[in-house]
Amino acid sequence: MDVVWAPWRGAYITSPKQPGCIFCLAHDAADPRQHLILVREPVIVMLNKFPYGSAHLMVAPQRHTADLAAMPADEFQAVMAMVQRAALILRQEFKPEGMNIGINLGAAAGAGVLDHLHWHLVPRWIGDTNFMPLLADTRVMPEHLDATYDKLLPLFAPAATR
Fold this sequence. Notes:
With about 160 residues, the chain is an alpha+beta fold. The chain contains five helices and five strands; from the N terminus they run H-H-E-E-E-H-E-E-H-H.
């Protein structure tokens, strides 16, 4: 029998849930790496600590809001511009064959964070969906989050500093 090592799943299941909003906590954190933050301004970009797939990013407005319909146009445009930039960076760095990009509004839609809007970007490859999630409730991740973070951080730096 083969054993698949996925320690982050156990940590997620057994750890106490941190009070507060993960995006607001990340924005105010002293150590961006601890929260896997790639960008804080003009919007928040961070790796998902418990990803659906390799290089799974989340993009969120800085302002704590769950109301998509009430987002001011300039705030929405800033978030969408970063979603577009993040998709380009993921495509260039990881060469996925496709990408899921979306937002879950409300618990019934699958939102894990209900009170802060955020978009998911999940790079996809032909054959990346296999029997593991069905039979073993396990996702196979080919790269550790720290390695992914190290690859992506310089790519999100402002153009003037690259």
